[in-house]
Write a structure and sequence with these properties.
Elements lengths: L1 E10 L3 H12 L4 E4 L15 E3 L8 E2 H14 L4 E2 L3 E5 L5 E5 L3 E12 L3 E3 L2 H4 L9 E3 H11 L6 E5 L3 H12 L3 E7 L8 H8 L6 E3 L1 E7 L6 E6 L12 E4 L2 E4 L3 E3 L2 H5 L24 E3 L10 H19 L9 E6 L3 E5 L2 E3 L7 E7 L3 E10 L2 E11 L5 E5 L10 E8 L4
Parallel strand pairs: 1-2, 1-8, 2-5, 8-19, 10-17, 11-12, 11-17, 12-13, 20-27
Antiparallel strand pairs: 3-4, 6-7, 7-8, 9-18, 14-15, 15-16, 20-22, 21-23, 23-26, 24-25, 24-27
Helix pairs in contact: 1-2, 1-8, 4-5, 5-6
Length: 422
């Protein structure tokens, strides 16, 4: 077994891992990126559409271009990378056990760890669609890789279940490649992707969007031949008598993403049941001292620019921890989700940090227009922000300068209320 001593081990070489590594290196510590794939960049190399980098680089880039900007910095800063290397365990003393075909088993001994493993797609097994198990059922991300990287078309007549961003983007991509996208079927009364993707990928190409519908059966033994769809009630149950059969040869699933936290769970990192990611403080430090989390493994983002911003925060704070400059944890103040708030990250704040600028990310449970976002402590309003609209598909970023609360207050409540137009 080869032993490697490093300042900072970063598990994952996607956009979060890359930005965290660059930031940590510039802060004066030596990071090591551990990536299980054969290349850096995570999902970005297959995202050949534009729309990336508007916030970070102030210009519009494709996914590969965005990734390459950071890959170039990794090379310029001479940051070591281990590709094709799988982390299989993290011990109680925070030693990382990994392996690859060239070096065998590795024991990596870091002073701090950043978890940046990203997320994976929900598959057919996660949503239990009845019917046969024919070929022609793919996740939207797999279909994206087939078309954009491998050069294969998954099918010619396609139904997409779910309106996540990858599904919407693939509806447009497959149409441009000559396929017929017969419908995008969404169980909710609203799309789960960005508004711009709904407009640019569906409406601009006259692709039908069937809200409050779902696929109830897959037909075909060897290959998908058709799917049955039906309307759903307010409990998301199919309504008898509303069934319709759509002939197709392919079904794409765009039904959500799951943070890859098997390693985190294994070592005892406390996880948030709503986000599926770690419970963190304002430094993005998890329940285990010296282990930080950022990117889609912490919470599923809709913009890679937000992933990068979060990773920069993690990289800076991991460097401070290594240099023993991170504020000692004394007392935590909980952030609590109130009316129409699904979750908040970070889930708690060190009381001493309330006097400094903070960034909170959150998602709402349902769409609303003309609202007021309020932060309250013991009935006192700490901050208010008006928004013309809020959507579950679009993450809300809220920045504060200082939050002043009494020493007896142990939680801050975030809530959405009508009245943003007043």
């Amino acid at each position: 077994m080869i032993e490697i001593d490093v300042d900072l081990a970063i598990i994952g070489g996607g956009p979060a891992g890359l930005a965290a590594a660059v930031t940590a290196k510039e802060a004066g510590v030596n990071p090591l990126i551990i990536e299980r794939d054969f290349e850096l960049g995570g999902i970005l190399p297959q995202c050949i559409h534009n729309g990336f980098g508007l916030h970070v680089f102030k210009e519009e880039l494709t996914g590969p271009e965005y990734a390459q900007r950071y890959i170039n910095q990794i090379h310029e800063l001479d940051i070591p990378v281990k590709l094709n290397t799988m982390v299989i365990d993290i011990t109680k003393d925070k030693h990382i056990i990994a392996l690859n075909k060239d070096e065998g088993v590795l024991k990596i001994i870091p002073k701090a760890i950043i978890l940046a493993m990203g997320c994976r797609e929900r598959t057919r097994g996660a949503i239990r669609i009845p019917g046969y198990r024919p070929s022609g059922v793919y996740t939207a991300g797999l279909a994206q890789r087939f078309v954009n990287i491998e050069g294969y078309m998954p099918g010619k007549e396609i139904v997409i279940l779910g309106s996540g961003d990858i599904g919407l983007i693939m509806a447009r991509r497959l149409t441009l490649e000559g396929a017929k996208v017969k419908a995008v079927v969404e169980i909710m009364p609203y799309t789960n992707g960005l508004v711009r993707n709904r407009v640019q990928c569906l409406e601009d190409f006259d692709i039908p969007l069937l809200l409050e519908h779902t696929v109830t059966k897959i037909h075909g033994e060897n290959r998908v031949e058709a799917v049955t769809i039906a309307q759903v009630d307010e409990h998301w149950k199919p309504i008898p008598g509303t069934e319709e059969i759509i002939e197709c040869d392919t079904l794409l699933l765009s039904v959500g993403l799951i943070p890859e936290n098997e390693l985190s769970n294994k070592i005892g990192v406390a996880l948030d049941p709503v986000t599926g990611g770690a419970i963190v403080d304002e430094n993005l430090e998890t329940s285990i001292e010296g282990i930080f989390s950022c990117g889609n493994v912490l919470q599923v983002h809709d913009l890679v620019d937000n992933v990068t911003q979060e990773a920069i925060n993690a990289g800076n704070n991991a460097a401070k921890y290594i240099k023993q400059k991170l504020k000692e944890k004394k007392e935590l103040v909980k952030t609590k989700a109130g009316r129409n708030i699904g979750y908040i990250v970070p889930q708690h704040i060190n009381r001493k940090s309330l006097s400094q600028p903070l960034i909170f990310f959150m998602r709402v449970k349902k769409p609303e227009n003309d609202v007021l976002i309020s932060l309250k402590a013991n009935g006192t309003i700490l901050k208010e922000l008006k928004k013309k609209f809020v959507r579950p598909s679009e993450m809300i970023e809220l920045k504060t300068r200082t939050l002043e609360i009494g020493p007896d207050i142990n939680e801050i409540i975030f809530e959405i209320s009508p009245g943003g137009d007043n």
